[in-house]
Amino acid sequence: ISATGYWATDDAGNVTAAAVDTPPADNYIHYDADTNILTLHNARIKKGLPFSEDTEAGSYLGGSAIGVLNQNGDAELTIRLEGDNVIGDVSNGIYLLSYSGGKADLTITGGGSLDVKGSFYGIRVQSNTGDAKLTIQGEARVAAAVTFTTGDGVTVQSAADKDADLTVDGASLAAAGGSSYGAGIYFYGPDTPRLTVNNSAMVSA
């Protein structure tokens, strides 16, 4: 997805392009390129980007249902939840990667829910050279889990001398890691990671 438009999803988790200006009746994705907001409206996504060395996205984000890659700058996205949304049967549910020269910043907001399950990562926000931040806010209800025994439900990864932040503000987050060495919430890289919980938010890890 690189331009504004709608995509329909079906019960099997397939995603197909729809009309640019008119939303499907239900079960859809919308991306606004001007605001960088991805809306999930009762969406079902069970297909990941194929692994491929022929493209940058396929090399770095292969297996991800939702992925954002910036090779030389910030990787940023806002996901707005409407209704009940499901991501599953993929290697990585949501993966934001700033490979070099920028930060990684993911915000999940809205009044809906998201149940995301990946083999290795549920939600992963990673900057190799800068700050990494995940914010879940409003009335959003997010559950992130993995199927692999050493996978992590939520990973926030920054460079060693940068900030790694997870903020849950008025929302709820349930994060479950794998049964062997997996973590519900895993901070990687920084000397002092930060977890902030505000406004009657609920966190279960």
Describe this entry's structure for a reader.
By secondary structure, the chain is mainly beta. The protein is built from 1 helix and 18 strands. Strand 1 and strand 2 form a beta hairpin. It starts with a strand and ends with a strand.
Task: Output the helix-strand order.
Answer: EEEEEHEEEEEEEEEEEEE
Strand order of the largest sheet: 2-1-3-4-7-9-11-14-17
Structural class: mainly beta
Terminus-to-terminus distance: 32 Å
Could you tell me the radius of gyration in angstroms? Answer: 16 Å
Roughly how much helix do the residues carry, as a percent range? under 10%
Key features?
mainly beta; single chain; 9-stranded parallel sheet; 205 residues
Write the layout of secondary structure elements.
Elements lengths: L4 E5 L5 E3 L10 E5 L4 E5 L2 E2 L10 H5 L3 E7 L4 E8 L1 E15 L5 E7 L2 E15 L4 E6 L3 E6 L5 E6 L6 E6 L2 E4 L9 E4 L5 E5 L3 E3 L1
Parallel strand pairs: 4-7, 5-8, 6-8, 7-9, 8-10, 9-11, 10-12, 10-13, 11-14, 12-15, 13-16, 14-17, 15-18
Antiparallel strand pairs: 1-2, 1-3, 3-4
The gist of it:
The chain has 205 residues and is mainly β.
